[in-house]
């Protein structure tokens, strides 16, 4: 039998152990040294721990509290310049996280059309209490006011939005056919019927009664129709929701003294809150056929609200809001009140302002963008409201702001100032 590994156990011989007598002299001194070294060791551990936990001045991405309730923070990126206000960055971040968490929880609940929350009169609650007078939070009331002032009735297309969600999550064209009004004639007729209801204030209307009281009026005719089709939703902010939410978040944080930050959503809304001249760059994109190009960079300083609408996906989250058919046609969430079809006049448009919030800009852009034909004169007219527009047309980068600063212009494009 050959040798095994166990047979080699004596290859390395251990030296005999030699006993050493420990001196009993200076025991007290050695004890003091032990205590001293222990204190130093503990101090180093504490210092290391706190150096990792310490918050330093500078830009940092702020997340909600790990113990937060359901909230809308997943739709946003919030960056803040800690320490600029003169407050300790550690203290400032702690209070900022608390404020941001509370605001995102509240916004999530108010604009939610999928669930009810205790003591919250949200969009879901209104849909399930038609023809009742309800007191809502002033944030939601103000959003309804803005829609009313703009004559925007897209919230009343709510029954169609579930169909679009099904379209966007379709796995193939065969499945998508069930939800695409461009291909499915029977569905297109139903979309038209819903659009007719949505356009008519005598069938459905959010009535603003003052003191944050509203009534979701729904006619008997529409209630009977909804019952036949098992519809439970008459209003929904849908893709417009984050424009109102980002304005609320910026307003709430600013009111609490947090001025040196910026918020951006995955679906094209940006709020720079700081009053000072921080330098920013916003990339401008354009779609040719089914290829998206970085056309140029817009440079600006300080406070700004930006709205970017596009008929193509830009990130992984967008996969839930667009569907690309085998022939290359892309479906998107911008639904026209005329007939319930998704429609836009350009591949993309950017609107921005120092004075207006994202929701106000959006109300101005929708008539220009969610329609058959783009109206360049109407876009130029927005300058009177200090709202400026950037768009692409036949290889030209067009803009209405005479002071716009552009860099990195792609050689595919020519600049065209459309200014008064």
Tally of DSSP helical segments: 11
Report the biggest beta sheet as strand number plus sense, adding barrel if it closes: 9 strands, mixed
Averaged pLDDT? 89
Order of helices and strands: HEEHHEHHHHEEHHEEEEEEEEHHEEEE
Shape: globular
Unreliable stretches covering 5 or more consecutive residues: 1-20, 46-53
For the biggest β-sheet, the strand order reads: 1-2-6-7-10-13-14-15-17
Strand content: 15-25%
Radius of gyration: 30 Å
Structural classification: alpha+beta
Number of strands: 17
C-alpha termini separation? 101 Å
State the helical fraction: 25-40%
Give the count of structural domains.
3
Write up this protein.
A hairpin with a 2-residue loop joins strand 8 and strand 9. The longest helix is centred in the N-terminal third of the chain and has 27 residues. This protein is globular. The strands form 4 sheets. It has a 9-stranded mixed beta sheet, with helices on one face. It has a 3-stranded antiparallel beta sheet with strand order 3-5-4. It has a 3-stranded antiparallel beta sheet with strand order 8-9-16, with no helix packed on it. The chain folds into 3 domains: 100 residues, no CATH class; 119 residues, no CATH class; 110 residues, no CATH class. It has 11 helices and 17 strands. 33% of the residues lie in helices and 22% in strands.
Task: Set down the secondary structure blueprint.
Layout: H1 27-53, E1 58-62, E2 76-82, H2 89-110, H3 123-127, E3 133-135, H4 138-150, H5 158-168, H6 173-176, H7 185-199, E4 204-210, E5 213-218, H8 220-228, H9 241-255, E6 261-265, E7 269-272, E8 279-288, E9 291-301, E10 304-310, E11 323-324, E12 330-331, E13 348-353, H10 358-369, H11 376-381, E14 388-393, E15 396-399, E16 405-407, E17 414-417
Parallel strand pairs: 15-17
Antiparallel strand pairs: 1-2, 2-6, 3-5, 4-5, 6-7, 7-10, 8-9, 9-16, 10-13, 11-12, 13-14, 14-15
Helix pairs in contact: 2-9, 4-10
